[in-house]
Amino acid sequence: TPDDSAIVIWAGGKLHRVPARGGPSVEIPFHVVDQRAVSKAVRSPVEVAPAKFDVKLLRWPQLTPDGSKVVYTALGKLYVRDMASGQVRRLTTQNDHHEFYPSLSRDGKQVVYVAWDDAELGSIRVVPIGGGEGKTLSPHPGHYVEPVISPDGKTLVYRRASGGGLFSPRWSRDTGVFALPLDLASKPKRGRKADAGAASDSSAAEVLVSRSGVTPHFGAASDRVFLVEDGDDEAGVLVSMELDGNQRREHAQSKRGEEFQV
After folding, report:
1. Are 202 and 156 in contact (CB under 8 A)?
2. Which of 2, 28, 35, 222 lies in disulfide reach of 15, CB 3.0 to 4.6 Å?
3. How far apart are CA 72 and CA 56, in angstroms?
């Protein structure tokens, strides 16, 4: 209060006057005269778990070179849309895992993608554009992202990240961008099923391209792969290198550019 004799506080929905030097508090009675108009609440019915609904987010859309089809991920599965008729179909025939990061071969006949299962982790698979069952290419389980096939169809390049947090920490030690010859990657492994600690034949053929960089992709040729790295002052830098990581070159950089594509 102005004379410093008490403090006015709010408690329990009431106003109280508390003596500054101690003592019992006194309720300050008050009432408010007010009129308010209450409008009718706007309510829209929401159907929970409907059998059908419109998909509003398409991830990683990839248009075939002839422009006749587009491949994308929706609801964790790969779909193909015919651009002329608008007809949409599932690309694969499985329901055991999720499907992400589709990427078309340069001739548009093959689709590589990442399969993910919370227990089995991820793998890179390939399936014809006509559909079917995905064939595993990656050498062992892991946290795979951004697979791409070289223009000549002979090399698979991909990025392997680390797990942790919401994802399993297993198979997180060897990360980076890697290249794998497709003729070796496509060979089935003979003998007993490999366990989580065993390396397959194609794992030995895996070549480290770079420990850093994201979104690996190719230009017109197959001898160099392009990556985006973090530069100084938070700038993104477009670089390229040979498939064994040698002959690194810087091509462009931008503080505002979020994606580079050759």
Report:
1. no
2. 28
3. 12
In total, the chain counts a number of residues equal to 262
pLDDT tens sequence across 156-191: 999 999 998 888 999 988 999 999 998 755 454 433
**Residue 123, burial from CB neighbour count under 10 angstroms (0-12, 13-18, 19+):** buried
**Which DSSP category does 164 fall into?**
B
Q: What's the pLDDT score for residue 101?
A: 97
Residue 141 and residue 122: Cα distance in Å, rounded? 5
Distance CA 24, CA 197 (A): 73
How far apart (Å, rounded) are the C-alpha atoms in residues 24 and 13?
18
Q: Exposure string (b/e) for 184-201, b if CB count within 10 Å is 16 or more?
A: bbeeeeeeeeeeeeeebe
Please report, as a single letter, which amino acid is at residue 223.
Answer: D
- Record the tokens describing residue 7, joined without a space: 């403090």
Where does the pLDDT of residue 201 fall: very low under 50, low under 70, confident under 90, or very high at 90 and above? Answer: low
Among residues 88, 84, 81, 149, which one has the least CA distance to residue 113?
149
Query: Please, are residues 96 and 109 in contact by the beta-carbon 8 Å criterion?
Result: no
Contact 184, 204 (CB under 8 A): no
Q: Please answer whether residues 146 and 159 qualify as being in contact, where contact means their C-beta atoms are separated by less than 8 angstroms.
A: yes
* 8 A C-beta contact, residue 162 and residue 104: no
Residues whose CB is less than 8 angstroms from the CB of residue 194 and which lie 6 or more positions away in sequence, other chains included: 140, 200
